[in-house]
Specification:
The complex is a heterodimer of chains A (about 240) and B (about 300). Chain A has about 240 residues and is α+β, with helices and mostly antiparallel strands. Chain A is built from four helices and ten strands, in the order βββββαβαββαββα. Chain A has a six-stranded mixed β-sheet. In chain A, strands 8-7-9-10 form a four-stranded antiparallel β-sheet, sandwiched between helices. Chain B has helices at about 5-30, 35-45, 125-140, 170-185, 235-240, 270-295, and strands spanning about 60-65, 70-75, 80-90, 100-110, 150, 155-165, 190-195, 200-210, 220-225, 230, 245-250, 255-260. In chain B, strands 1, 2, 3, 4, 5 and 6 form a six-stranded mixed β-sheet that branches. A four-stranded antiparallel β-sheet of chain B has the order 10-9-11-12. A two-stranded antiparallel ribbon of chain B has the order 7-8. In chain B, helix 1 (about 5-30) packs across helix 2 (about 35-45). Classes of the chains: A alpha+beta (about 240), B alpha+beta (about 300). Chain B: This is Exosome complex component RRP43.
Chain lengths: ~240, ~300
Amino acid sequence: MEEERHTEAKIGAETGRGSSPRGPGCSLRHFACEQNLLSRPDGSASFLQGDTSVLAGVYGPAEVKVSKEIFNKATLEVILRPKIGLPGVAEKNRERLIRNTCEAVVLGTLHPRTSITVVLQVVSDAGSLLACCLNAACMALVDAGVPMRALFCGVTCALDSDGTLVLDPTSKREKEARAVLTFALDNVERKLLMSSTKGLFSDAELQQCLAAAQAASQHVFRFYRESLQRRYSKS
Amino acid sequence: MSKVRWRNRRAGEERRRRRRAGGKMAAGFKTVEPLEYYRRFLKENCRPDGRELGEFRTTTVNIGSISTADGSALVKLGNTTVICGVKAEFAAPPTDAPDKGYVVPNVDLPPLCSSRFRSGPPGEEAQVASQFIADVIENSQIIQKEDLCISPGKLAWVLYCDLICLDYDGNILDACTFALLAALKNVQLPEVTINGETALAEVNLKKKSYLNIRTHPVATSFAVFDDTLLIVDPTGEEEHLATGTLTIVMDEEGKLCCLHKPGGSGLTGAKLQDCMSRAVTRHKEVKKLMDEVIKSIKPK
């Protein structure tokens, strides 16, 4: 029986939880991850970014309905439940983004005619929700032992009306921003796996955000590595 | 039948049979190994339908075909056909923004357009497309919502934009964006005055004015093959074989309204730059086509 491993990491110039003041430019909020906290799913993880928290559970590889089975690879399904209300069109859109990102990294061909289901529940939303969902999904897939060719992480950038770039914005910052860009990057070559944007921005700003996101993703991947090392070194 | 005519008839049949046999072999290879069949073409830098990797299919647009709608447009991108109809109705403006109207898009992918869609509630693809169009309208500020307000706090226009796909052959997002833009440019709203005594709205159908379209967002879609090759305007088969897709929506100043990459293989920053430049040229092509069509219709 594996114990719960609760790992926290203070990355960047953060001084603590909550609304800590951020320096100009690039620093992420405090984040934390907890794995193997649910007993029924094959893998589960809870990812916290500042005040945004998402709980993910993974079932798989498991039996698949004949109508949905693919003969040479696993069928991936993502279900995203919002904190309040019924899931709507916006949730369907996010499910499709997360599902396609997972499909690009999961080695589905090792488990043909099976289904891998990722269930995400939004516990609290304080900005950068899609990035937090991606991180939680990745950690849960690792906890479930699903074979993957790379890990991925989500990073959100917000552009103010005067062009300042803020990473991992709070919901207040997101509302005031001119543009909000969310990227999913893989850890092998920092390539862009998924991108979802809101608002108007120029080509140069896009490249700037992408570069900043790639730099920030290094912190996230280091955190993944440290937390997994801590978890598996004692057992 | 005379002997001479009979001999010629047999020769013709022989030629046709040999031609069909050669074609059948290629068709057989395509069914068994569709990816290999495709790779053979991509190696020569072209595609089975004869296009280059950066070439779009023939785009045709027809405006104002639906007389019962306030604005309509039909767009054909090769075989992909999307029709957009815009209806304007009255509504009370939202309480948190009493001087704004509404623009409500809806994309419908009926079983008519492709065998993979069933009748019933909208599937995931239709919902994703609807959300995409809603995002494009919101991000590009194609219409200032304040223009749709008639009387602040009491009455505003709501534009229901219904996009229906009639034939699905890939690249639905580009076609929908273009159809929406063309239909909105075609919309004519009648003048509405609020009668001071009865507080009712009086519609003057004789006096109509066009909408103020501020920007022209144009979508360019790419498909990623084998993690490295990028092709523009994928057909239905190409989308099925691709390992990822990317859609860029750009307006005339080169600003990006939307960079939609729903997962799939990774892309480097340099490849994104190539896509941007292709999107800029596509915008110019589409703008030229739109201006031609509008010019041909305006003197009415």
